[in-house]
Amino acid sequence: MDREMEKEALLPGGNPPPAASPSRRAPGSVRATISRIFWWLFCVVRIVALVLVVVQAITHKPIFNAGTRRDELTAASLESCAWDVLESHASLLSVPPIGRDEYIARQARLADALRAAGVDAFIAEPSASTAYYANISYTFELSERPFLMILDKDAQFSYLVPKFEAGRIAGLDMVYEDKKVIVWAEEESPYEVLAKETGFGKVMLDEHTRFMIAAGLQKAGVEVVPMSETIQSLRAVKTEAEIAILKGINAFTLELIRSLQKCIKLGMTQETVVSSAHALFGRVGVGSGFWAIVLFGDQAAYPHGGKHGKTLSDGEFVLIDIGSKLHDYGSDVTRTILPSDAVVSDELLGIWQTVHAAQSAGFHRMWPNETCSVVDAGSREVVKKAGYGPYYTHRLGHGLGLEMHEHPYLNGANNEKLKVGEVVTNEPGIYVTTEQAADVGRKVGFGVRLEDPILVTEQGGVPMTGRRAKSPYDP
Ligand SMILES: *[C@@H]1O[C@H](CO)[C@@H](O)[C@H](O)[C@H]1NC(C)=O
Ligand SMILES: *[C@@H]1O[C@H](CO)[C@@H](O)[C@H](O)[C@H]1NC(C)=O
């Protein structure tokens, strides 16, 4: 707190009232006596206040908590408080991007898998898959005219491009050893051109490819098969370089939440927390992939958010689910926290503990060869036993990489097995709306979620955040 303002808060402002002026010439008057008492009282108050100000100047600690001032509730103030804590963690982001050799190695691995699957080529529109295999950004805007990346079973890289776009597309970032460009003119069918130029009999389409591409290829006589689980897992299983990036951005994201926890104050709005978090990511150059869900109290009963403008009151949790991107790889971390001077009821703390135990149960099942649905069920069991089964409304988690949500999905229907090198979120939650609150013996709704992305290793799960939460005060 700024010292000048603290003084103002401590001193009973202004000059003494005129009535308090001592009048020595009327000793017998009652009025003069009262005036004198007031004057002395005022002097005592001034001396005490002066002593307090001096003590505070020496100790740099506020003697009284004079309440939170408005300018302490702004995003700028939250950002600057959090930055003092966060700055020393910026080096977590000093991780190199994916190098050229790795792209070439990915193309070779894909070619091996295509040969094993008896498929001539893998075809994708600009998407996480083109970013993964050839560094072609998924932000390229799709149009009705197909622009397709083609990697064949001999690891030959080609692309199909509308003739009038060829120049622009040649200027995109792409990584390949050798490229072949297949151009189609406006008076031709792109699919017939592709079939004729390549002679492909059977191709595998990336899962994000639009149906019109599949239909067009089929019509041109090329058999189309969907992306196989084996080929999905090439991208789901992370390399050392990817793991280093994911660790960097996710550990930094957790430190950012921890720095906010130290600085959030009662009376702040959800939007204040969101904008200062955005600014904090921006300070270290990773603000462009920013997204956030920040929910106070009963707003968190909806996992993806409620109303705007809510301010934080005592007795409410703060749910922060936040992330950004480093070299296109995402972070996704959730903590349910309390500012150090705030408290919630023992029942709510118990719910936090239940979610933590559910997260532990999931975490301890994150071993290679464990079935995704079994991991999900393990965390659900804990919540069911505590009596909140129906309020754990979503799956346990999802893969994380170039996409914020990708394979494998940890839900009750997925029989895939976890593999060494996969990174999956572990994010159980309990959500009770105010309308449902009476059913669990409460008046007001709430939501609690904890989330860490976990790397699957031969020694079990490793949190990419560096550490799991210990309590709402030690997230
Ligand atoms: C991949 O593309 C990005 C820009 O989209 C570029 O900065 C980076 O250098 C490229 N990587 C390689 C290995 O070419
Ligand atoms: C997973 O299962 C496969 C095949 O069943 C086996 O070869 C592999 O050793 C197992 N991996 C681990 C880490 O248990």
Automatic annotation (TrEMBL):
Q: Does the keyword ATP-binding apply?
A: no
Q: Which residue ranges does the record annotate as region Disordered? A: 1-26
Q: Which UniProt keyword terms apply here? A: Membrane, Transmembrane, Transmembrane helix
Question: Is Transmembrane included in the keywords of this UniProt record?
Answer: yes
Return the Gene3D superfamilies for the record: Creatinase/methionine aminopeptidase superfamily (3.90.230.10), Creatinase/prolidase N-terminal domain (3.40.350.10)
**Which residue range or ranges hold the Peptidase M24 domain?**
255-458
Positions of the Creatinase N-terminal domain: 106-237
> What are the TM regions of this chain, as residue ranges?
37-58
Q: Domain of life here?
A: Eukaryota
Name the Pfam families for this protein.
Creatinase_N, Peptidase_M24
By its UniProt entry, which InterPro entries does this protein fall under? Creatin/AminoP/Spt16_N, Creatinase/aminopeptidase-like, Creatinase_N, Pept_M24, Peptidase_M24B
Name of the featured protein: Probable Xaa-Pro aminopeptidase P
